[in-house]
Amino acid sequence: MVMESTEPWLVEFFAPWCGHCKALAPEWEKAAAELKADGIRLGAVDATQHGELAQKYGVKGYPTIKVFPGGAKKKGSTYKGPREAAGIVDYARSTLGGSAQAASIELQELTSPEVFSSTCGSAKLCAMLFLPHILDSGAQGRNAYLDTFKEIAAEFRRMPIAFVWTEANAQPALESGFSINGNFPTLAMVSVEKKAFAVPKVSWSKKNLQAFLQGVLSGVEKTTTIPAVPEVVTVTAWDGKDAVVPEEIPLSDLFSADEL
Fold it and tell me: Cβ distance 162 to 125 under 8 Å?
């Protein structure tokens, strides 16, 4: 459940006979109730009933609390903070608050003119993320890019910006019109109303993209005007999976021996 979730989690591993675990239980419940509205989840696992799971996460004593940030889940880190409700809540909000907000954000894939109209067409600015083709990044790599984009979107959530994404070659008119030039991943900031755009001239990183967005909003970044915003074509949405690699066909199956 935790590993399949995009929400941030704090998970306590406990043993029924553990005195410290019994003392933590009411504080854990209070913290869980308070953090629910923040999109941060708390869970508990009886390590005596789920020994393999406890071993998997390196649990050697009780209670042990593991921290899983929002987005794609990896091996959790160990929580070493306060054991009372107020301290747990403060830690969770300061450490996981951004990932909780990011997890609640849904990024729209540009799959049709209608999607473009309902997102970019109604916003002052549109942040278009151009990702590598799924054959180049794989699902894991793509999700990592999208998680970073979500974190950025969460930080700029109060700004009039729509956040959308597409993959290489899916929207060729956009790539050409916004001078993407095969640089994936990259971002284009677009104003549909002003028929203008800007692309970053720095490498992909969360820090660089944050600075780029700030530069666009403050008017520091140079923009380019275009006669019209390129058209979006209808494509099939990504299914969340790795691409199926086409099977290689031997030349002998295509040509006769004489032709070879």
Answer: yes
